[in-house]
UniProtKB/TrEMBL annotation:
This is ABC transporter. Coiled coil: none annotated. It comes from the Bacteria. SMART domains: AAA (SM00382). It comes from Arthrobacter alpinus. The lineage of its organism: Bacteria, Bacillati, Actinomycetota, Actinomycetes, Micrococcales. Residues 3-233 form the ABC transporter domain. GO terms for molecular function: ATP binding; ATP hydrolysis activity. InterPro entries: AAA+_ATPase, ABC_transporter-like_ATP-bd, ABC_transporter-like_CS, ABC_transporter_ATP-bind, P-loop_NTPase. Keywords: ATP-binding, Nucleotide-binding, Transport. CDD domains: ABC_NrtD_SsuB_transporters.
Length: 253
């Protein structure tokens, strides 16, 4: 499914006044595309993702999926967060089954869960409780639960941010395998420039545009070259990495 943002803005009011987080954000995501949102903390990346899911409403502008405006929690989306958020008293299979749409019969539910556990490499851990598996395995289960909805749009809010470096790379590779098997549209929030370069077709950089107008907006869009999986040692990606870090105000050397 495609996703469109049209002049989206989000402000929050308090006794201290109005705080504008996002303003005039407009871009499109094509069906099956992976788009990464990069930017400093507080620039509105997660706010933008929540607007797609219908978990938060924009103050101005619109967000639509396949041409239909998002209004309230949208069943066309599934979200995976940085924390797996598995129910500790349920098995891994039962946690994944939570994501299966409620109208599915027991045979269909079992079939979906078995296929997804196989896809993410957790078939032999189906009966385990969350406390009995590693953090990386728990994140795989969280991803499987999100995919159980068969979402048109998969929303990932720093899903690998709490993992160690080696597990993070493994999970990035797994996401690419899953996307190859189930090419849904993906919107990924990340602070990791290397992760964005490995996974995304495009990178949207959010930040201040240097004007006096409050709120963050799109300051740069990068089309990432080359098919996935990409060579992590690529000189072309290394150049893009340095350029993106410079845009974020970080010395890439």
């Amino acid at each position: 499914m495609s996703v469109s943002f049209e002049a989206l803005g989000r402000s929050f009011s308090s006794k201290a006044g109005t705080h504008t987080v996002l303003r005039d954000v407009s871009f499109n995501i094509q069906a099956g595309e992976i788009v990464a949102l990069l930017g400093p903390s507080g620039c509105g990346k997660s706010t933008l993702l929540r607007a797609v899911a219908g978990l938060d409403a924009p103050s101005t502008g619109t967000v639509s999926i396949d041409g239909t405006a998002v209004s309230g929690i949208d069943s066309r989306c599934a979200v995976a967060f940085q924390e797996p958020r598995l129910l500790p008293w349920k098995s891994i299979a039962s946690n994944v089954a939570i994501g299966v749409p409620s109208g599915a019969d027991s045979a269909r539910r079992r079939h979906v869960v078995e296929n997804l556990l196989k896809l993410v490499g957790l078939s032999t851990f189906a009966g385990h409780r969350p406390r009995e598996i590693s953090g990386g395995m728990a994140q795989r289960a969280s991803l499987a639960r999100a995919l159980a909805r068969n979402p048109g749009v998969l929303l990932l809010d720093e899903p690998f941010g709490a993992l160690d470096a080696l597990t993070r790379i493994t999970m990035q590779d797994l996401l690419l395998d899953v996307h190859a098997a189930e090419p849904t549209t993906v919107l990924l929030v990340t602070h990791d420039v290397d992760e964005a370069l490995q996974l995304a077709d495009r990178i949207i950089l959010l930040g201040s545009d240097g004007t006096d107008t409050p709120g963050c907006t799109i300051v740069r869009t990068v089309n990432v070259p080359g098919p996935r999986p990409r060579d992590r040692a690529s000189s072309e990606l290394a150049g893009l990495r340095s350029s993106l870090l410079a845009s974020l105000g970080v010395d890439g050397h």
